[in-house]
Amino acid sequence: MAALVAHDLRGLDAHILVTGVRGTPIELLRDNRGWSEQEWQDGVDRLIGRGLLEPGGTATPAGIDLHRAIEELTDQLAAVPFATLGEAELHALRQALQGAAAAVQSSGVLPFPNPMGLPRL
Fold first, then answer.
1. How far out from the chain centre does Cα 55 lie?
2. Residue 18, CA distances (Å) to 25, 27, 103, 106 in order
3. Using a CB cutoff of 8 Å and minimum separation of 24, what contacts does 58-65 make?
4. How far is CA 23 from CA 47, 53, 57, 81, in A?
5. For the chain, what are the domain ranges?
6. Chain centroid offset of residue 19 CA
7. Residue 115 confidence (pLDDT)
8. Is 9 strand, coil or helix?
9. The whole model's pTM is what?
10. pLDDT in tens, 10-66
């Protein structure tokens, strides 16, 4: 959220930008998040007005750059809590989370491709 706020984007805007950058199906994001077609279109128009999307919905170079900057800032901010962990502790954490990740994946609840860009295990 901090990365979005820093770049003057709403949650809806971020999801629309992802569809323009990654080609994620609009329905996957719009419908799962409960936005109406009109809300989505208003967001598209807003991003077109900012020069981040082409009229057809694909990201402009500026939109691609902004998406990359947001992802990088998000990664930097998310890394802070783990900075004090040693390699052995990070390995143990990965091992502990592996089972939960496998259970989520095998449940079928999370589609592939998915809005988060998570790969299959």
1. 21
2. 10, 12, 26, 25
3. 58/20, 59/17, 59/20, 59/21, 63/17, 63/20, 63/21, 64/21
4. 16, 12, 9, 31
5. 2-83, 85-121
6. 9
7. 66
8. coil
9. 0.79
10. 999 999 999 999 988 898 889 888 999 999 999 999 999 999 999 999 999 999 999
In the chain, the amino acid numbered 50 is: R
CA distance 71 to 67: 6
111, amino acid identity: P
Phi, psi for residue 53 in degrees, rounded to 5: -130, 150
Neighbours of 80 (CB within 10 A): 8
Largest CA distance in the chain: 50
pLDDT of residue 66: 97
Phi, psi of 59, deg, nearest 5: -70, 140
Structure tokens at 58: 């694909």
CATH architecture of the domain formed by 2-83: Orthogonal Bundle (1.10)
The partner residues of 53 in beta bridges, in order of sequence, read 59
Tens-place pLDDT, residues 60-94: 999 999 999 999 999 999 999 999 999 999 999 99
